[in-house]
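In response to reviewer comment 3 from the previous cycle, which asked for concrete evidence that the modeling workflow produces usable outputs, we include below a single protein chain processed end to end. The sequence was submitted unchanged, and the resulting structure tokens are shown without manual editing.
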Amino acid sequence: MTWTPGDHQIAVLGSGPYCIGSSVEFDWSCVQALKTVGKNGFNTIMINSNPETVSTDYDMSGRLYFEELSLERVLDIVEFEKPEGVIISTGGQISHNLSLPLTQVGVKILGTSPDNIDRAEDDTHFRRCSTRSASISQAGRK
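The workflow returned the following structure tokens.
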């Protein structure tokens, strides 16, 4: 498949190296994201550093980058490819950790917002939200 950078495309960040508890599920999610994006008429870009995943099979995406999932490498690829957006919510912790820094430099994140990812992963934010939610729920029972 041939296209030029910026041609109606979306990038998906993978999960990087396998860790116990964060491997097959995230890879499956990345594959489903690639398939869905492709079915909706977008060219697909997969960025992942783990060659032992289904998402990094050459026939899964239009463009494939075996690169470390660091802010610098992802920004290099985004600058070159010029995707309309980047899906990070399917890739797991490594991708999630990049969500706020990518947003802060103007990369459009598709799917779950970086602020909501941060709220869910930050214990203090999550606890505060859970406490508030429980208070509202109990107040409604009275």
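The chain has a mean pLDDT of 83. We consider this sufficient to address the reviewer's concern, and the full set will be provided in the supplementary archive.
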